[in-house]
Design goal:
The complex is a heterodimer of chains A (204) and B (75). Chain A is an alpha+beta fold. Chain A contains eight helices and nine strands. In chain A, the strands form three sheets. Chain A has a four-stranded antiparallel sheet, with helices on one face. In chain A, strands 1-3-2 form a three-stranded mixed sheet, with helices on both faces. In chain A, strands 5-6 form a two-stranded antiparallel sheet. Chain B is an all-alpha fold. Helices cover 52% and strands 0% of the residues of chain B. Classes of the chains: A alpha+beta (204), B mainly alpha (75). At the A-B interface, helix 1, helix 2, helix 3, helix 4 and helix 5 of A face helix 1, helix 2 and helix 3 of B.
Chain lengths: 204, 75
């Protein structure tokens, strides 16, 4: 941490530039991963962030939170709303509020890619935070953080894309172990497969 | 269900355990060490490239939790 240069870095060397595609490939694979979620590794990754933060501010969180799993972000949002309220009787608004309060795990690979490149390839001052963030996006789906508890969800079981956007005219474009899924036509989210098929037919 | 203290990103507190909180802490540590031209280059090469697909996925999931549009087979 102390061997870093104190001056601002203003340009990349050719050698550093040549490394960018490697990070692009790695984090694209992480961000679109549908590999089975290793729950122990996912819990360990998030636990590391709790250990890191609890050292900086013991009031913020404990070092060893309890983990509760839900099988999709939607199911996770319901659980998170229940824990936040302390009741199983939660409103639709309380569930919807969880969208802004979630951490997005593997879906945050795009920004972590940049910091991973910087931390690993450039002579910057750093600590283990980047490594922790990298581990989280590699191992975790969407999750919700509480002082002493984490609601975790697995990564999707399938993602179907065309031209970099969600698209599938034959089934879900993205799905989760519990059957929760998204239907999409060329990046536009639809309410059902029937709606996708109707859109497709109208476009033709 | 026991009530738990939620931790979420408010944009006003630099120590947050959330994904955005970690991003904020990383940016506080690292951003000042890099010049603007580096950011332009890296953003174009990484964020603005194929990883845009990943960012769009995040938006879709977020919108769908918010709009309650995820289709469930669970009753």
């Amino acid at each position: 941490m102390s061997d870093a240069k104190k001056t601002t870095i203003d340009s990349l060397t050719e050698e550093q530039k040549a490394k960018i595609p490697e990070y692009l490939e790695k984090f694209l694979a992480i961000g679109l991963s549908t590999a089975p979620t290793d729950r122990k590794k996912a819990e360990n990754a998030v636990r590391r962030s709790y250990e890191y933060l609890s050292k900086k501010d013991p009031n913020l969180c404990i070092a060893t939170p309890e983990f509760v799993w839900a099988e999709s972000p939607m199911a996770g949002a319901v659980l998170a709303a229940q824990f936040a309220k302390g009741s199983t009787d939660v409103t639709e608004k309380e569930i919807k509020d969880q969208a802004e309060q979630a951490s997005y795990g593997s879906f945050d690979a795009y920004w972590v890619s940049t910091y991973s490149f910087i931390a690993n390839e450039l002579p910057v001052e750093k600590d283990e935070l980047c490594e922790i963030s990298e581990e989280i996006v590699k191992e975790c789906g969407v999750y919700w953080t509480f002082h002493d508890l984490v609601v975790l969800t697995p990564k999707p079981t399938s993602i179907v894309m065309e031209d970099k956007v969600l698209h599938n005219t034959e089934g879900p474009a993205l799905s989760y172990p519990d059957g929760n899924c998204l239907y999409a036509y060329k990046g536009s989210i639809k309410g059902s497969l029937m709606e996708v098929m109707m859109t497709s037919k109208n476009k033709e | 269900v026991k009530k738990r203290r939620k931790i979420y990103w408010t944009g006003q507190y630099e120590k947050s355990i959330t994904g955005l909180g970690l991003a904020y802490m990383l940016s506080k540590k690292i951003d000042r060490q890099l010049g603007d031209s580096i950011w332009v280059e890296l953003n174009l090469a990484l964020w603005g490239s194929l990883l845009e697909a990943n960012k769009r996925l995040k938006r879709s999931i977020k919108d769908n939790i918010n709009n309650n549009l995820l289709n469930s087979n669970i009753t």
